[in-house]
Amino acid sequence: MNVDLTDKVMVVTGADSGIGADIVKLALESGAKVVAVDINPNLAASAHGRLGDLTRNARFVVGDVATEETHAQYAREAFESFGRLDVMVNNAGIGSTRRIHEAPPEEFDRLINVNLKSLYWSARFVVPFMKKHGGGLILNTASISSVAGIPLQGIYAATKGAVAQLTRQMAIEYAPDNIRVNAVCPGTVDTPLLRKAAAEAGDPDAFLKMLADMHPIGRIAGPEEIAAMFIFLSSDWATFMTGASVFVDGGFTAQ
Ligand code: NAD
User: Fold this and answer.
1) Is 23's C-beta closer than 6 angstroms to any atom of ligand 1?
2) Rounded to the nearest whole angstrom, what is the distance from the C-alpha of residue 176 to the centroid of ligand 1?
3) Contact between 125 and 167 (Cβ < 8 Å)
4) CA distances (Å), origin 28, targets 23, 249, 253
């Protein structure tokens, strides 16, 4: 089974690091054209460094997914550079390790804006275009925290629960428009986001061991093991899937 994304135009947010960086890499290797979006101003330079000539099919937009302007910019970039937008990957996200009542209101608002409201802003720009062009695919990064309470996940868990429910709702609303919407729910993945949470937790080694032990498979994932699912879902092998929350979690939610 070959996965061929030739001629597909994808937008990937949170593209500079972790899962998003690996989605961009695998998508380019599979023939897609990619608009990579991230708040990190070094986005283009770091992608050129990591991916070399593969970046000939990539464009870069530096911006905050919590703002409307970023979504306007990447939509414009996709249409001006590639003439279409087939797959929207809402992957950018931030964590919180504080207990709910100890998180300041600004942190609550920031997590909602980055992890959840960004999907709404994205829909405002992407859905009308997809409707006009006969359909499309939206993929959202949710989490095992979408369905399970896990120590030290705080407000993050509420945002990811909402991402999974918004995915289902959008799948139903837009199925008549041939727009499919799915979520990928990773278990714990070794990325800078996780390393930051581990540092904030006080004892990073104990934190990482606790998380690894919570996965029946006995370890946490590498980002490429999650990115691969996005590539499959973006391919023409997954055309009957919509409204799904696909768990790539080492057995976490099977317990
Ligand atoms: P990461 O920190 O390695 O990468 C996230 C990227 O998003 C970074 O490049 C960062 O600069 C970018 N970003 C952050 N805020 C942004 C904003 N406001 N606007 C634009 N870009 C922004 O993290 P990751 O672990 O690869 O996380 C990717 C997604 O996977 C997130 O939605 C996260 O919640 C989810 N997730 C991660 C894990 C895990 O264990 N790492 C588990 C489940 C779900």
Assistant:
1) no
2) 31
3) no
4) 8, 25, 31
Query: What does the pLDDT look like over 137-187, one tens digit per residue?
Result: 999 999 999 999 998 889 999 999 999 999 999 999 999 999 999 999 999
Digit-coded pLDDT (tens) for 54-63: 999 999 999 9
Altogether, the residues listed in the chain come to a count of: 255
Q: Does one domain contain both 35 and 94? A: yes
Give the pLDDT confidence score for residue 50 in this predicted structure.
Answer: 96
144 and 208 co-located in one domain = no
Whole-prediction pTM: 0.98
Distance CA 234, CA 8 (A): 9
**Is 161 a pocket residue for ligand 1 (Cβ < 6 Å)?**
no
Q: What is the DSSP string of 219-238?
A: SPBPHHHHHHHHHHHHSGGG
Residues 201 and 155 in one domain: no
In a domain, 28, yes or no: yes
72 with 197, same domain: the answer is no
